[in-house]
């Protein structure tokens, strides 16, 4: 089974530039009506860190998570 990742978004520092959502290859992120980012499909994250690397406000942290033993 492949690796799993958790997208941690600090919404308080997000200024709503939209770069993260535009660059996410799996559409994990979307832009809310107020213009800020939101994690819309966390299970789709492949850990590429595109959001984290390109965010001018350092709003993202991508963490690898252990797969559940029961899966």
Looking at this protein, list some descriptive labels.
71 residues, two-stranded antiparallel sheet, 2 helices, 4 strands, 14% helix
Nutshell version of this structure?
The protein is of the alpha+beta class and 71 residues long. It is built from 2 helices and 4 strands. Strand 2 (29-31) and strand 3 (37-39) form a beta hairpin.
Describe the protein's architecture and organization:
The chain is of the alpha+beta class and 71 residues long. Helix content is 14%, strand content 25%. The chain is built from two helices and four strands, in the order βαββαβ. The chain has a two-stranded antiparallel ribbon with strand order 1-4. Strands 2-3 form a two-stranded antiparallel ribbon. It is elongated, with a radius of gyration of 12 Å. The N and C termini lie close together (9 Å). The mean pLDDT is 93.
Order of secondary-structure elements = EHEEHE
Specify Rg, calculated over alpha carbons. Answer: 12 Å
Q: What coarse outline follows from CA principal-axis ratios?
A: elongated
What is the percentage of strand-forming residues? 25-35%
Major β-sheet strand ordering = 1-4
Biggest sheet overview:
2 strands, antiparallel
In helices, the fraction of residues equals: 10-25%
Kindly report how far apart the N and C termini lie: 9 Å
Number of helices: 2
What is the total tally of β strands? 4
Low-pLDDT stretches: none
Structural class by helix and strand composition: alpha+beta
Q: Could you report the average pLDDT, rounded to the nearest whole number?
A: 93
